[in-house]
Design goal:
Length: 241
């Protein structure tokens, strides 16, 4: 196990650079070469590894934001940082800036992410509104919903209907990540749900077969149908956002 410590470079008595060094059991000192730092999170815990392969921290904590904050509090320079989550419920691989943009404003205490996908059927001439929604994790579909409205809702109204449905599913410690397909929204639409929902819009229908079928079912049945599976149903959807 190596001891890690930091040194500062100064210019005119002002700190200008922070460097991370390692000291091994033999007392040898060496700077850690800059590179992409990787935070890996599994069900068992986390490991934070420098670009040179040095383990900066390891533990049972799995809250990404808390791990990053603790590392920064120790004076560790993590940039650039890639986050990789591979658990039973979630698979995520993205850079830290994007992760923080999405989750930094989540309400305190909401650390459990749940993933949803919704599709708005626009093939009916918009005489009514039919929406398909699924909840999924890294490997399974957890619930399905066919949502129906007897009038043509606008894109924003349809998105509000989806958001209200998702919010009803969430516990106090959960945040909903919702991918809305075929629903056009203003850029600031998601602001009203800040802290509880992370809303993304997509045009592509690739990987949307389940929600498309559920929307078509809603149009045919002309009522809401919601089913939560006692045993998760295997699906090809991945919680990789």
């Amino acid at each position: 196990m190596k001891c890690l410590y930091t040194t500062y470079g100064y210019y005119r008595n002002e700190p200008t650079e922070l460097k991370l060094h390692a000291r091994d059991k033999a007392g040898r000192h060496a700077p850690i070469t800059p590179g992409t730092t990787v935070l890996s999170v599994t069900d068992a815990g986390h490991a934070l590894t420098s670009g040179a392969g040095e383990v900066l921290s390891r533990g049972i904590d799995t809250d990404v934001m808390q791990i990053i904050s603790a590392a920064r509090a120790q004076g560790l320079s993590l940039y650039p940082l890639t986050i990789g989550i591979n658990t039973k419920k979630e698979r995520v691989n993205m850079d830290a800036d994007r992760f923080e943009d999405q989750y930094a404003d989540i309400e305190e205490g909401r650390h459990v992410r749940r993933y949803f996908k919704a599709y708005l059927d626009k093939t009916s001439g918009r005489k009514h509104t039919a929406i398909g929604v699924i909840e999924y994790d890294a490997r399974n579909t957890l619930s399905i919903a066919s949502l129906y409205e007897g009038q043509a809702l606008s894109n924003a109204e349809a998105a509000n209907k989806v958001a209200a449905y998702v919010e009803r599913q969430l516990a106090a410690d959960e945040v909903g990540v919702v991918r809305m397909i075929n629903i056009s929204l203003r850029r600031n639409f998601a602001d009203r749900f800040a802290g509880k929902l992370v809303i993304k819009t997509e045009k592509a229908k690739q990987g949307a077969a389940e929600v498309i079928a559920l929307a078509e079912d809603a149009a045919e049945r002309k009522n809401d149908v919601i089913e939560v599976f006692n045993e998760p149903m295997t699906s090809g959807v991945e919680a990789n956002v």
